[in-house]
Amino acid sequence: MTAKSWSDITIQFAHPAYRLAERFAARHTGMAHFQSHDRADLKARIGEADVLVISGFWDNRLLEDAAKLRFIQVCAAGYDAFDQDALKARGIRLANASGVNVNAVSEHAMALVLAFTRKLGEARYNQKKAFWRGMISDIARREDELPGKTMLIYGLGAIGTRLARLARAFGMRVIGIKRDVAQGNDAVDELHKPEALMALLPQSDFVVLTCPLTPETRGLIGAAQFDAMKPTAVLINVARGPCVNEVQLIEALHRGLIAGAGIDVTEKEPLDAASPLWGIDNVFLTPHTAGETQTYEESVLDILKENLKRLAEGRSDLLKGIV
User: Fold this and answer.
1) In this structure, how many other beta carbons lie within 10 angstroms of the beta carbon of residue 242?
2) Is 269 a catalytic residue?
3) pTM
4) pLDDT tens digit string along 267-314?
5) Which among 15, 93, 240, 246 is annotated as catalytic?
6) Number of domains observed in the structure of the chain
7) Same domain, yes or no, for 232 and 116?
8) Rounded distance, CA 9 to CA 67, Å?
9) Distances from the Cα of 229 to the Cα of 199, 238, 314, angstroms
């Protein structure tokens, strides 16, 4: 796309729930656009699009029908579903919305940590039964406090870094894991490479995944890792479902190898109604909503606007969130 064609492009928004086209229209850009709310309409109309703004619906087979497509803006941080080699072969640029949900996901992860610490699941259950629980003599069954607890964060991008700062504000000791430790990270108390994971698990009260899904992180947490964790530890996954072996997670919970799990993502989404995860008391399960907020559309559109401007000016090497 060139500056001359800036006003000539057609944008296809593809998402089942987010009101992207509606909010884009309110900006009065003059650019042609439409929204596909389901996969069938996405496939039927992708041939009209120069730009595709999408999350969740992508299938690499759509490229066969995308004759005009030149740019894909993923309205999320994850982009593992895209065949980048196939996109490059067709001259299609890809950018994610890195940073769009930093606040939301880090706060969601911290909320799950607090929910376990303050036993909010038990309180909600008792509320529904109109049961006023008395004071507890058994110390191990009481609510707890966060100061002095250790949080291990695997993945210190923007989300993991902000979570580390939140955890330290609560008085927690924070250990971070990232591939490149050369530049350091002042948000954590300790910084390690991925190879140190097994050695760090036994000292961690909360193990939080905020990493992308890559060949290295697929199946990152499984039987060996659960065996290495404290029986009082909690796993929090706000990364991607396949980062955790779900069958082995369920087994670990049933065997009491860990104290609980806060899960925003699952291996298969939506989670099957027959999954045991629904009925395990020491699981907090949210339906991949960690990044969802009332300002999400506007944040995505701000990134899209900047990227379209850079494309129009021939500065594709400076795309925000380029992958």
Assistant:
1) 17
2) yes
3) 0.92
4) 999 999 999 999 999 999 999 999 999 999 999 999 999 999 999 888
5) 240
6) 2
7) yes
8) 13
9) 10, 18, 50
